[in-house]
Structures are given as C-alpha cells and as structure tokens.
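== Fold encoding ==
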Amino acid sequence: MSENKRAACLKGTGVTKVFGFGDKKTVAVDHVDFDFREGEIISIVGESGSGKTTLSKMLLGLISVTEGSVEFQGKPRDISSGAKKKEYWKGIQAIFQDPFSSYNIFNKIDSVLLDCINMRGGKNLPYEEKFAMMREACSFVNLEFKELTNKYPFELSGGQMQRLMIARIFLLKPKILLADEPTSMIDACSRATILDMLLKLRDEINMTIIFITHDIGLAYYVSDSVYIMEHGKFVEHGAAEEVILHPKAEYTQRLINDVPKIYEEWDLSTV
C-alpha cells in the first residue's frame, strides 16, 4: 500500500512537554508535529537528551502533554481516566531498552503470556486453546514453550527475554508498537534476530512500529520514514532514504558522520 493511501494511526500537532515551573522551566519537547501511518516503520533519531524518550512516554500516555494534541486512529486521544488509558493501551504497546526491568520477577512465563490472552478478551477460553495460542506465540519468536513452562523471566538470557516481549506483542496484536532502543542491551547476533522478528511481526499484523533510537544506521536499515530530533524539535523528517542519503539539516549530517566507516580503510584489492 502506498504511503498516501495508508490510514492515519497516530498524529500529533504542536506536542510540547515542559518540566518545572517559573524560571526553572525546561522544555523537553517543543511543539513537534508528526503523522504516523498504518503499517509504517518510523524511526525517531537523536542523541541522549534530544527529547525522544520524553516524546515516547507522551505517545504511550505515561506522562501528560503540556500543550498540543494527539489523535489516535483519526480521533482525539482520550486517556483522562484509568479505564480509558487501559483501552488506549490495547492499541499501543512498547518494548523497552532493558529487558530485565520489563517483567515482574515473581510472575512465571506462563502467567506473563496468559495475561496477554486475557487482555485480548480470551479470559474464558478453554485452557487447551490458550495453551495453543501461547505455543504459537513462542514458536513465532523461535522459543520452545514447553521449555519455558514454570520458568521465571530472569532465568532467560537478555535476547530470549526480548524475544518473549515480541511473543507478548504477537498475542496482544496492538495497532502500534513503540520500540525504545530494543537492541541496545543485547549482543550483536541477537540484535539482528530481534530486528528481523519485529519486521516479520509488522508484516504479520500490519502494525505500525515506532523506533526510538540514537543509531541512524539502524534507522536507515529498518525505516520507511525518519524523524531527526535535536533539543526537543524535529529538525528534519521524511522518507528514510531521502533524509539519510540527502540530509538537509547540519545535525543530521553530524549524526551520519559519526557512523564508523571502517570499510573505507580496507584495501579490498588484497582480499
């Protein structure tokens, strides 16, 4: 589906976050506009302190918006009560940087996956059907459910825990997945696996994925569109290839220049 035919999924106008008050105000996110479309992969790229994590928390409804508005699926987002937040969270879920802090250490893996099924309205399903759904979700991320039964998340490796997070998303089937540096705390081999699984998941359920990252190389690899963030503002955005191969903003160029270019130093004639 071409970009201009995709339905609006999450749209923001003048979204702003100010911390503090009086002379001690800090503007973390400064009147940003965005328009994320169904089935897109979007990267929000910036250095530490650029405001991208604050923006992600506002998108998730974890912190309030000081100014501006957010629309979800073409309607003004309403998260004014606990019940309305829970309803909104059925449509947007997250994978965070640290897999070890994403689980309740007292809940076994069976319970983690069962909670997802119950959230999607499967509370009264026969256990055999729930078991089949959990097994399918684990199979999707190349985990053996029978080997996870009665285990706790902390008994898994970091890569396995992130894969289990993707299994949760497989069961929840949200419209939007916000992935905040999901590969930064796992080894290089696991990173490629996690990214491939996320791309496969996008294709499986036509989900919008928003990557929050400092890695502009990752953004180029996975994204349909890229938003470059500096000091709380978007300094550039557009199609990934256009932004990264033909950057207009000086800050974007600086991020690109910081990517190691090890191949340029190799003498390939000797290989």
Summary: The longest helix spans residues 188-205. The longest strand covers residues 8-19. The beta strands are 8-19, 26-37, 41-45, 67-72, 75-76, 92-95, 176-180, 208-213, 225-230, 233-239.
